[in-house]
Amino acid sequence: MTRTVVPPAVRAVRGVRAVRAGGRDRGSGAILVVLFAVVVLLLAAFVVDGGLSIASRERAADIAEQAARYAAQDINEDALRSGDGSVAPINFENCDANVAEFVAGIELTSAEIDGHDCREGAAANEVEVTIDVTYRPVFGGLLFQTLTVTGTATAEARTG
């Protein structure tokens, strides 16, 4: 059995060639890290903007509920006294003014109330209020300048 002796210079050249051949994959890990970071940032943006959307919808619904209660407090006293007292009819002529007065007193930090509507409900003692809240998404602001969410609520004036 003969053993061939490889001189050190040849071994060095073969080692350099082996490193160069294996070096074609260098940097592919960095590309994966960058792509993964972009995906994580997009998911974070989705979570933050989704949470802001849900919070804005809840806020619009809360304001609509409070404004409907405020508008339902304006009872037509003459109609209440002339009736049997079981139904408390609402002054719908003042409904828009009452909602506008209530909305004017609300201050929002991350959104603004864009519009409101007040209309008669299914019965003479019900009022339905719709509130539009406009907000700006944190990360989605590049695609959407502002988004509008709507909250609707009904309040009933009761006696007794």
Structural commentary:
By secondary structure, the protein is an alpha+beta fold. The chain has one domain (32-156). The protein is 48% helix and 19% strand. It is built from four helices and three strands; from the N terminus they run H-H-H-H-E-E-E. The chain has a three-stranded antiparallel beta sheet with strand order 1-2-3. Helix 2 (28-72) crosses helix 4. The longest helix is centred in the first third of the chain and has 45 residues, at 28-72. The protein is rod-shaped and about 125 Å long. The protein starts with 7 loop residues before the first helix and ends with a strand.
Distance from first to last alpha carbon: 113 Å
Number of domains: 1
Q: Helix and strand string, N-terminal first?
A: HHHHEEE
Sequence of strands across the biggest β-sheet: 1-2-3
Shape estimate: rod-shaped
Strand content: 15-25%
Strand tally: 3
Rounded mean pLDDT score? 82
Helix content: 40-55%
* Content-based structural category: alpha+beta
Task: Please write out the topology.
Blueprint: H1 8-22, H2 28-72, H3 77-82, H4 95-104, E1 111-120, E2 126-135, E3 147-156
Antiparallel strand pairs: 1-2, 2-3
Helix pairs in contact: 2-4
Please give a handful of descriptors for the protein shown.
48% helix; 160 residues; 3 strands
A few lines on this structure:
By secondary structure, the chain is an alpha+beta fold. It has helices spanning 8-22, 28-72, 77-82, 95-104; strands at 111-120, 126-135, 147-156.
